[in-house]
Amino acid sequence: MVTLHGRCGNESGHTAAGIRRRCGGSTAHVGPGRVRRPRCAAGQRAAGLRQGGQAVDIRGAALRVAERLGVLEEARTLRTRMRGMSFLAPDGREIDRSTEATFSSGRLDSDDIEVLRDDLVRLLYERTCADVECVFGDSVTALDQGGEGVRVDFAHGPSRTFDAVAGADGLHSTVRRLALGPEERFVRHLGSCVSVFGTENFLGLDNWQLWLRDGPSGSGIMPVRDNTEPRIAFGFESEPRAGQKRGRTRRETGYGVRADTA
Predict the structure, then answer these.
(1) 217, containing H or E segment
(2) In sequence order, which ranges of the chain are alpha helices (DSSP H)?
(3) CB 13 within 8 A of CB 40
(4) Euclidean distance between CA atoms 201 and 67, whole angstroms
(5) Contact at 8 Å (CB) between 121 and 31?
(6) For a 10 Å CB count at each end of the chain, is N or C smaller?
(7) Would you write out the chain's pLDDT as a tens digit for each of its 262 residues?
């Protein structure tokens, strides 16, 4: 069986491809008299593995998945090492602090693991690249279900036929849109926007997070990679764009801004 997982270069694409490879068994039958191992492919619009982004929590059932994929122990060595966090007023005064939990990772005494997204992607890529064909610098433009499988058209490469297509390509999934319709049918606007980026440790933070809320906006800073590269998150309230649907209830998020949830 040949399966396309869109996309490579993100944690969901490589996890799906790795699980499919492991669950495929030793052989798969393709046509009369032909036997071969399942093969997987994954596509990515970027030219290579993307850098930056937020931290990802590996907890609960995800810990078992990471163990079965053979990445759990190395993920533990890559985990963030937070000691706690401070919550600041708009003028910079500390109004609260915690050495028991952080907004980004939860309780610090749990077995859960917080890993930077780009570190997790690299780890999963290294574990699956020998068995999974990764197509960088391209994207899916059309899907056509036929008797021999799913014909997939690409923006740059030639069309190919796969036995199955899995849309592990994020919130604004192209595969979902092509297979099931416009994303407005499936995505609910949560009432806020968040941006995460890296910079230098200009505050000299030592495994300590800072969070601030100022009216409808908020921000957070968490130092990573031995305190050499803080990741900064900005969040602010926003109304749905044209065509977007709003969720039904409201809650408080860790970024200090309100968000709608379905």
Answers:
(1) strand 217-222
(2) 11-23, 61-68, 72-78, 117-128, 174-180
(3) no
(4) 33
(5) no
(6) C
(7) 455 655 554 555 555 555 555 544 322 222 233 333 445 666 667 777 777 778 899 999 999 989 988 899 999 999 999 999 999 999 999 999 999 999 998 999 999 999 999 899 888 888 877 777 888 888 889 999 998 889 999 999 899 998 888 888 888 889 999 999 998 888 888 888 999 999 999 999 999 999 999 999 999 999 999 999 999 999 999 887 766 666 654 444 444 444 443 3
